[in-house]
Amino acid sequence: MNVRRRLIPAALASALGLGALTACSSDSAATGDTDKFDVVASFYPMAFLAEQIGGDHVNVSSLTEPGQEPHDLEISTKQRAQLEEADAALFLKGLQPAVDEAVAQTGIKTKIDAAALTTLEDHGTGGHSHEGEEGHAEEEGHAEEEEHARDPHVWLDPVKYAEVAEGVGKAFEKADPDNAADYKKNTAALVEKLNGLNSTFENGLKNTKTKVFFTNHAAFGYLAERYGLTQEAISGLDPESEPSGARVRELQEEAKADGVTTVFYETLVSDKTAKTLARDANLKTDVLDPLEGITDKSRGDDYFQVMEANLKALQKALGAK
């Protein structure tokens, strides 16, 4: 799928998709008109928020199946009906145009766009600014729309994810006032836990031999910025885009200059390019999970477990002291 279609340049663009939770249902029959507050979420990070905040009061379903790459989601007729029957849609506008369109066309009363609950930034394709490097994007074969798109991966920064959680909690309180007190309490508990995760990352990445890490695609810009690291992505915001030869050579040189030890890949897209770069540059490989979905390959059963596994992987690769 072409990134020109998927990423919205200047608008508050963001992410959509879904990886299912064990307590989530991806069957539309389980969604419509239950005696609970029915929420259709676009992908795993949104579904996780809905379940954590909603607790026993919500019935959450996912549009993106476990193991499905959320960027590629297309909406079926059955899923459109699922949206129509729900009490609320929780999505992250911009990453999945098909979901944006489907939500906009439904008569659903409560539409919660996570992109509007925090601030999205332009991280380019890596951790370094490319300002003043005319022709750089063309040389590397990156589309201009991708190079200057708003980065949707806010859930990988616990602080920004907490901001989204607070906004979702308020939206639930307004839409389902009978259970507002519980939503408020659950949101506060989740935010406290996310603040704790932030502190764990801060302490765990404070002293490292290098601050640079290589990733398969540019999913970790917010995380890198939060903890003083530099992400360099083989591909851009599109996980399926192919890097140019010039980009690969640049990364090989940077690995030597910055003491990079590891090329990270992820579970939902091909690891071929990452492993080729690692082999050519004599680097190790490991998994850094962008948490777009939970599968049996994930290093943990939920957001917090996988994020803790990501921290351990980063500490090992960066030489944490």
Keywords:
globular; 8 strands; 4-stranded parallel beta sheet; disordered N terminus; 321 residues
Q: What does this molecule look like?
A:
With 321 residues, the protein is α/β, with parallel strands linked by helices. It is built from twelve helices and eight strands. The chain has helices at 3-6, 44-54, 77-85, 97-105, 136-140, 144-147, 158-175, 180-204, 221-226, 245-258, 272-281, 303-318, and strands at 37-41, 58-62, 88-91, 110-113, 212-215, 230-233, 262-265, 284-287. The strands form two sheets. The protein has a four-stranded parallel beta sheet with strand order 2-1-3-4, sandwiched between helices. A four-stranded parallel beta sheet has the order 6-5-7-8, with helices on both faces. Strand 3 (88-91), helix 4 (97-105) and strand 4 (110-113) form a beta-alpha-beta unit. The longest helix is centred in the middle third of the chain and has 25 residues, at 180-204. The protein is globular, with a radius of gyration of 19 Å. The termini are far apart. Residues 1-31 and 127-147 have low confidence and may be disordered.
Write a short abstract of this structure.
The protein is an alpha/beta fold. The chain has twelve helices and eight strands.
**Biggest sheet overview:** 4 strands, parallel
Structural class: alpha/beta
- Coarse morphology: globular
What is the overall number of helices? 12
pLDDT averaged over residues: 82
Please give the radius of gyration in angstroms: 19 Å
Distance between the termini: 41 Å
Strand content: 5-15%
String of helices and strands: HEHEHEHEHHHHEHEHEHEH
Helix content: 40-55%
Q: How many E-type strands?
A: 8
Uncertain segments are: 1-31, 127-147
Strand order of the largest sheet: 2-1-3-4
